[in-house]
Amino acid sequence: MRKQIIMGTVLLTTLVGARIALRAQQDKASRPSPPAKAECKIDGKAITVDYSSPRAKGRKIFGGLVPYGQVWRAGANEATTFTTSSDITVGGTAVPAGKYTIFAVPGESKWALVISKKTGEWGTAYPGPDNDLARIDMKVSKTAAPIENFTIAFDQSGSTCTLRMEWESTRASVDIK
């Protein structure tokens, strides 16, 4: 009898846990800034960025909602993660295999990609420069048309993936090898 009670409790706990996990996934998809993912492979090396994609909604983004010269979380909700299965170089800077949090420092004509060794932050909780693996210059240009949804994507050419961030009328990019 005691064994049946324990098994019943374990089963109930498992079912409740599964339901909570499913609801959390559904809740994330219905957020105003839904989850998004960008992936690239270089010679079998996987690079993945998980982020949340906010919408412009008619707002002034860079130099407004996102101030110039300040660390920005590069997305919304949970901090943006950057994972690489192998050692790579980002803008000429060595980045060992692992999981990182990325931020950006936008400017009118110059951006920096911040790769932080600390992970698990929520949103705007930048852990400070002591946790930076690197700050890497990004190229900045204008987009051909306004971009409503903040987007992180990769463009692949041979053994190079170009990471690009686009929103409003701005594109910031950096090469990864």
Helix content range: 10-25%
Strand percentage, roughly? over 45%
Order of helices and strands: HEEEEEEEEE
Overall pLDDT metric: 87
Widest sheet: strand order?
1-2-3-6-7-8-9
Number of helices: 1
Q: Specify the biggest β-sheet.
A: 7 strands, antiparallel
Based on secondary structure, the structural category is alpha+beta
Distance between the termini: 61 Å
Shape, per Cα inertia axes: globular
Strand segment count = 9
Radius of gyration: 19 Å
Question: Which segments are poorly predicted (pLDDT under 50) over 5 or more consecutive residues?
Answer: 7-26
Can you characterise this structure?
The protein contains one helix and nine strands, in the order αβββββββββ. It has one helix at residues 2-29; strands at 35-42, 45-52, 80-84, 88-90, 93-95, 98-105, 111-116, 132-157, 160-176. Strands 1-2-3-6-7-8-9 form a seven-stranded antiparallel sheet, with no helix packed on it. Strands 4-5 form a two-stranded antiparallel ribbon. The chain starts with a helix and ends with a strand.
Sequence-ordered SSE layout with sheet pairings:
Elements: H1 2-29, E1 35-42, E2 45-52, E3 80-84, E4 88-90, E5 93-95, E6 98-105, E7 111-116, E8 132-157, E9 160-176
Antiparallel strand pairs: 1-2, 2-3, 3-6, 4-5, 6-7, 7-8, 8-9
Gist of the model:
The protein has one helix at residues 2-29; strands at 35-42, 45-52, 80-84, 88-90, 93-95, 98-105, 111-116, 132-157, 160-176. It has 177 residues and is an alpha+beta fold.
